[in-house]
Design brief:
Layout lengths: L2 H13 L12 H17 L5 H15 L2 H9 L1 H5 L2 H20 L9 E10 L2 E9 L4 E11 L2 E9 L2 E2 H42 L1
Antiparallel strand pairs: 1-2, 2-3, 3-4, 4-5
Length: about 210
């Protein structure tokens, strides 16, 4: 079984948002725990129609995930070379890409549990270490967070020592090299549409 392809999209969706109710005194690990509980409640609510459940998760993602910081780190040196308009377009497309990549798959949740093993805080940055406990294995998931006011927001996820940002950076670097920033944005738009169609088709078959 390929752990990466079968579980990481679920874990990322469960842990990438932070609740507005988190108190200032709560650290990154506590905010992760609060968020996990809140998202799991949405997933377990059988009274919610599928689209309503997706809307709730999508709204949390849009509000609590620092897509701009993640976008800057993903594009790396190409971020400064892009125009302000291209930067804004990339952030919007990147957020939609991640939403549609994971939002349609969260129903795959099957009572996995999360074990919190520690946190490291250095000024306005933190690392939260967790394990996803399945019936057959424990999967290490590390979260890089940046403090924004009273909230700790995720800007990278490390799954089995593989960085989400670094993974996208490598893919996008090669596309920009061949097709430029404009070509990358066009391919991202196409991918978003493909993911939307795939999610909608899967829903119709349910």
């Amino acid at each position: 079984m390929n752990v990466w392809t079968s579980t990481w999209f679920l874990v990322f969706t469960l842990l990438l948002v932070f609740m507005t109710t988190a108190k200032a005194a709560q650290g990154p690990k506590e905010q992760v725990e609060i968020t996990v509980s809140a998202v799991l409640e949405v997933l377990k609510d059988g009274s919610l129609p599928r689209e309503a459940r997706r809307d709730k998760i999508r709204a949390l993602i849009q509000t609590r995930f620092d897509f701009r910081v993640m976008s800057q780190r993903t594009l790396a040196t190409h971020w400064k070379k892009a125009t302000a308009q291209e930067q804004d377009r990339f952030v919007g497309l990147f957020s939609r890409l991640l939403e549609w990549t994971y939002i349609g798959r969260i129903e795959a949740y099957s009572n996995e549990t999360v074990k919190y093993t520690g946190e490291k805080i250095k000024k306005d940055r933190a690392l939260v270490d967790t394990f996803i406990v399945t019936a057959s294995t424990e999967i290490p998931i590390d979260y890089k967070l940046l403090k924004n006011g009273n909230q700790w927001l995720i800007y990278d996820v490390i799954i089995e020592q593989v960085s989400l940002v670094r993974n996208y950076r490598g893919t996008y670097r090669s596309i920009v090299k061949r097709h430029g920033i404009g070509g990358l944005l066009e391919k991202m738009e196409q991918k978003v549409e493909q993911l939307k169609e795939s999610a909608n088709s899967a829903e119709k078959k349910m």
